[in-house]
């Protein structure tokens, strides 16, 4: 287990190193500098600013400085907000993103599990059809369309929730709903397939032969066996939430990293883009690691093969 | 026993000749055996939702690629005098399609107000007076082009990558899998955005960014299936006969991979369409004045409260496109899956 | 002694399946009895309807199955008329089943102790502790070593043979009157097969359970069964005691099955399998379903289904060859050998039978 963990962490570090390197050199090819947005400056002022950003050194030196910074969680200074450290910018915006992202994930996965298992247990009935239609709709309608519709109808028309801004819990409801749609639909689809599979397996047949009733079969055998593989889609769902948050945060003016990412992209704020790229990758790697470990802890088959290795 | 009603004669007890017996046997071949693809197609045809989705997609394809015939106006021609006109379909007098609009509590004829004369716009005009119908058709074409391009890369790159990785095994496989793992730990959208920034926003940047991200799932699934097929007898036999790897791939592997490939393709396509719309929506995709469903939705959203049709129509078309591809994908998966056979 | 000893009576069972291509007539008028403490083997090629027959007894046929007629009497009640709830109370309690593939028939995420204890908790309403204690006994009975430790293991920690022992423990934990074993050794290695068969025989003598033993392999029947029913295309074509079927078979299909079975005498020579394939059950033939593959087919076979002809009190076969009007046919050489052997055997058997009777009576005393 310790060996496995060590190996995984090594690969995460390798991945982050590669990602940092690629983003660094990509950004070096970019047009635009911190000066793009500023009016005419004297050569000495330009030199001053270049020095401030470390742009006067040769590229390989800049690269080493950047890497050393990344190791210490220092991603340089933002071009857009010239006196803010990127790491501070990201840190201050992390909270709202984690809140709506986490809520969206939890709400989506839980409702998806319910919807998916209902569909499987009542396969080929109207309940199944409804569950399928709901998940197809939610997986197909783009998050930005859904967000605008939620904002207009539940916010502006019905006035149930604030249309934008950031404050207490009530401000998180609409963004959470918009973000929950994708994990809800994906989980429901996955769960339904998984459970239909399990319900037609030999061990469910044996459970029936034991005389276990329908409820007992679902509760004691089918649910656990179909729930375990759900862990494997948490990683991809996290990616969906990250993607969705970029527009959802924008539409609802949530001061999170998703909104910041889009803003930085539109203003060519390279240090922030680079920092956020690395942070996104790091978060995803951690989620993937946790889900893998969780899967190993929960599934007895993997748990044991892990021990014997 | 009703059968016993017939009297039995002693003549009935003479042996049947071998020739007659084979005749007996051949009579019984009633259901013609179908090939796997024919069988799947038959099952797909029975799936109503999938067939409707297929028809919808065919119609959208024809409309979008034949848009020269259907476009009532040049999609990029601006006409500030005729800006923000509501939909007007000649001969239909239903509010919402007759060129009228609510203005401070009363319904007015917007076309008359703008002195539009005989002009009509099926789905109205945008804030620059461009014909929304033509722009939606154009945007749909962009989406479908993206779909085709993503499919191409899925096939050309993903399938080959998967087969090579699974077939070679060993060290090559390990390295190729590591690369995929690294790709998987970067959110696709982040990769796309970085590439687009380097290449400058536009159609070609979107194509490259979709090319570089869309093949990964295909490669993984094809690899898994190849690993499974590799040790099956017919492949082992072909190898023992000394057939080249390339020949085996085309003759034996690809036909057996076809269902995995087709199903996965059907899920790559809506993802690609989504990403194009998404990038265009946030403003780094298809650049103005060209239309994309994403930019149209972004434009329409600004006026959603007063001119809701400007966002509704592109949003509906985009959603219908996604829904149709997803339903067709589901239908294909069910029809290819032998387990779902009754 | 005969009739009131029947624990199960299947009469004129007809099962159809509705499919997109039409109605599959999977079971076409099957009748048989199962007696107390005996092992009845049902033999036939795959697709002949063995599994559907057992599923009907368990009430576990797939949803597209239609009971087109017949009855399955158990304790004077027709199982086909029972509700799902009523069947739940019988399954795993009075009638239990062992499935073909032990690798897939155990829940991979549940400890085997719980899986064995489950039928006790369901049917006997036992508390956890007591059920586990009994499950432990059962594990020892089916020959699992270190049962105290292994009770907390998961299925994947056992070999195929061990898993099948666990499945047997699950089936027998409530001491059912009837045990249905649907090809219980087909998925196992030959050496393991023999162990499992021995175990089943041993447990049968201990528990006095009646067994319906399904197999497509006549080879395993000899040492296992008391009586044999041969099935083809949804019908029973011949049944009798194990000796009658093995050494005095009357149906050409049974001949074919026996000829394709390896024995001491045939080792080395090539085994002929029955040429051709079973008929399409969507549209079964009017006459004898086996006619098209039958070297000995008569004209009448193509027109009318043969009734059962009596060979002895215990032995019946449905073939027109047994009709007095039928021409004399010479069975395959091997079958003649068998019949010669049978003639010798019957003399010995009469003596043996007497001995057996004495033994049985002693046991009961
Ligand atoms: N659910 C079903 N739907 C349609 N046909 C079925 C179904 N189950 C079994 N059959 C058909 O019934 C026949 C008997 O099958 P089965 O009892 O499984 O054979 P066996 O166990 O002797 O190998 C086969 O022709 C099979 O195709
Ligand atoms: Mg069977």
Automatic annotation (TrEMBL), chain A:
Keywords: Cell membrane, Membrane, Transmembrane, Transmembrane helix, Transport. Residues 94-295 form the ABC transmembrane type-1 domain. The keyword Transmembrane helix applies. Its main location: membrane. It is found in: Cell membrane. The chain crosses the membrane at residues 9-27, 98-121, 133-154, 166-185, 227-252, 272-298. Belongs to the binding-protein-dependent transport system permease family. This is Peptide ABC transporter permease. The lineage of its organism: Bacteria, Bacillati, Bacillota, Bacilli, Lactobacillales. The gene is oppB.
UniProtKB/TrEMBL annotation, chain B:
Keywords: Cell membrane, Membrane, Peptide transport, Protein transport, Transmembrane, Transmembrane helix, Transport. CDD domains: TM_PBP2. InterPro entries: BP-dependent_transpt_permease, MetI-like, MetI-like_sf, OppC_N. It is found in: Cell membrane. Pfam families: BPD_transp_1, OppC_N. PROSITE patterns: ABC_TM1. It is a multi-pass membrane protein. The chain crosses the membrane at residues 49-70, 146-167, 253-275, 311-332. Residues 140-329 form the ABC transmembrane type-1 domain. PANTHER family: OLIGOPEPTIDE TRANSPORT SYSTEM PERMEASE PROTEIN AMID (PTHR43386:SF24), OLIGOPEPTIDE TRANSPORT SYSTEM PERMEASE PROTEIN APPC (PTHR43386). Belongs to the binding-protein-dependent transport system permease family. OppBC subfamily. This is Peptide ABC transporter permease. The gene is oppC.
From TrEMBL, chain C:
GO terms for molecular function: ATP binding. PROSITE patterns: ABC_TRANSPORTER_1, ABC_TRANSPORTER_2. PANTHER family: DIPEPTIDE TRANSPORT ATP-BINDING PROTEIN DPPD (PTHR43297:SF2), OLIGOPEPTIDE TRANSPORT ATP-BINDING PROTEIN APPD (PTHR43297). InterPro entries: AAA+_ATPase, ABC_Ni/Peptide_Import, ABC_transporter-like_ATP-bd, ABC_transporter-like_CS, Oligopep_ABC_C, P-loop_NTPase. Gene3D superfamilies: P-loop containing nucleotide triphosphate hydrolases. Belongs to the ABC transporter superfamily. Residues 10-258 form the ABC transporter domain. The lineage of its organism: Bacteria, Bacillati, Bacillota, Bacilli, Lactobacillales. SMART domains: AAA. It is a peripheral membrane protein. It is found in: Cell membrane. Keywords: ATP-binding, Cell membrane, Membrane, Nucleotide-binding, Transport. This is Peptide ABC transporter ATP-binding protein. It comes from Lentilactobacillus fungorum. The keyword ATP-binding applies. NCBIfam families: oligo_HPY.
